[in-house]
Amino acid sequence: MNTLEKKSFYSFLALYIISSLIFTALSAYWYYTAQKNMFESNQHYRLQHIADTISQGIIQSHMQGLELQVPSFDDVIVALISVDKEVVYGSLMEDFFPDKMEYFEIGEYSVLISFSPQTHHGIESVVVQSKALSEELTELKQNVLAVMISSVILMIALAWVLSKLFIRPLQIRVKQVEDFVHDTAHELNTPVTALSMSVSRALKKKMYDEKALRNISISTKQLFDIYRALSYLSFESKPQSSSLLDVASVLEKGVLYYKELSESKKIAITLEAEPFSFKIDETKLSMLFGNLISNAIKYSMPNSTIEISLKKGVFTIQDEGIGIAQEKLSKIFERYNRQTDYAGGFGIGLSIVQKISQEYGIRVEVSSEKEKGTCFTLVFAREVK
User: Fold this and answer.
1) Is residue 89 within 8 Å of residue 79, measured between CB atoms?
2) CA 29, 35, 37: angle at the middle one, nearest 5?
3) Handedness of CA 303, 223, 284, 337 (dihedral sign)
4) pLDDT tens across 67-92, in order?
5) Are residues 246 and 123 in the same domain?
6) pTM of the predicted protein model
7) What is the number of other CB atoms lying within 10 angstroms of the CB of residue 145?
8) Is residue 32 within 8 Å of residue 40, measured between CB atoms?
9) Strand 268-273 and strand 305-311: pairing?
10) For position 307, what pLDDT does the model report?
């Protein structure tokens, strides 16, 4: 990853982890508070029930003249306080004086004081003490902490994966732009070098032969095509005025425009064009044909033929070039997508073809066979009269 990608990756990762930690901490606090309140309520009612049970036993045994017997309870310590303020049964686990009916927590113990015995058997109050709530809360804290740690680990792992997925489109886009800049520089280098060499050759000879002039013309046209493509990418959102054009006439001009390039590669072009009128911007129609014709020339072998026809509003261009694998046909119209390094290019020609076709309702069809050639078809709307 480059610096920009790393910055984006770690920024997203940090943002996701921090927001997730805040959400997890708030959720854990809410859960712990809710569970703590529930445990405290349950403990209060439980101790109250035990105190009432013991008080009823004291009252009944005194009224029946029986000996006082205090039942035992799991994890509960009972203390009976006499009217003389002395502990006559059990013990007080913490240092406090039971002077009123209440429920409170002291140290590790939950304590409930009840005056329900009403001095029967000389007992003034019952004190019920238990560490159960403290133990439950300790276990609850450990469980919440364990879940938080597990959640944090899971979130970090998930954040890492999501950050990778988040950065992936950016990496692809940056790679496409980098490749585009590299390929554009390469594409510009070829005609510029040819122009320079042709001019130097002409100056040395002090005469302008046909070959030098042809090279200059071809290179100039290549530079213009690159300029026109880049301009379209920059200003494609701007609407253009459309006019009723003779499509065959524009096509003939396009074929003538690329004649020097095809002849330099020893590629023959055949053309059959019937008059056909269609409402479209002339510059875009020229680009539409130009990209398909230049691509056919670029990917055709020397001494091959390109067949072009326009009949009843259907344009076809068939070459005998390197062809396109079937599994790659669905991606050829993606911007910056190049299916091969053969003959250079920077992957925007067919993207422009698709964009213009969609704008004017022109259906694009393509068929290809590896090492045998490719056929593009443009189906225009019904002829305008």
Assistant:
1) yes
2) 100
3) positive
4) 888 888 888 999 999 998 899 999 88
5) no
6) 0.49
7) 12
8) no
9) parallel
10) 94
